[in-house]
Amino acid sequence: MRITISGKAGSGKSTVAKLLSEKLKLKHYSIGDLMRVMAIEKRLSLLEFNKLAEKDKSIDFEMDNKLKELGKTKDNFVVDGRLTAFFIPNAEVKVFLDAADKTRAHRILKDKRQQEKSKSLKESISNIKKREESERKRYKKYYGVNYLDKELYNFVIDTTKLNPNQVVEKIIGFVRTKQKSL
Asked: Which of the residue ranges 102-111, 139-148, 162-171 would you say has the lowest mean pLDDT?
């Protein structure tokens, strides 16, 4: 079973994907982790890295090619990243996680991600919006896709009022339903 987890920044993609992979005993891959490592290597914030990627398409293409290859060569995994459903269209389960802006900003601030530094909730929300706009522009330009389009997914969850374990349980319920129909 191939499971993709997409969603907005701070919606819980990485946390949920890790927990889900552990519960289902599947391999976990994270495009967000790869992007954060690349940003750190360049000594840039994630927002700065996204701005660089707007000018240097090789950054996105490198990550996207890894994602495409994963979908073609592997099975039985959970992968999280913005374009996972687009690049792995043969995934049986394609999840999109959403959450209110304030909730997402709180999560990112609490997580203290080194490359997503914000001094306040307001600044965090602003940075998230700028980053998402940068990503939206690039993905539309490079691939003609809007990862926020719910038509790409077969399961959408608003995580605003849910903890990660509750989200994972909802996905597991959907996975079981999906397995019965295969």
From this structure: 102-111
Cα distance between residue 63 and residue 86, in whole Å = 13
> Distances from the Cα of 9 to the Cαs of 1, 86, 99, 150, in angstroms?
25, 17, 9, 16
Q: What is the largest CA-CA distance in the chain?
A: 48
What is 2-159's CATH number?
A: 3.40.50.300
Is the separation of the CB atoms in 3 and 26 below 8 Å? Answer: yes
- The domain locations on the chain are 2-159
HSE-CB for 176 with a 13 A CA cutoff:
9
**CA 120 – CA 175 distance, rounded (Å):** 38
Q: Is the pLDDT of residue 148 over 90?
A: yes
CA 127 from centre of chain: 17
Residue 159 per-residue DSSP state: -
For residue 9 the two structure tokens come to 């920044």
The pLDDT of residue 92 is 95
**Strand boundaries in 8-75, DSSP class E:** 27-30
For 18-22, 47-51, 135-139, 145-149, which range has the lowest pLDDT when averaged over its residues?
47-51
* Rounded Cα distance, 103 and 91, in Å: 28
Average pLDDT estimate for 98-107: 94
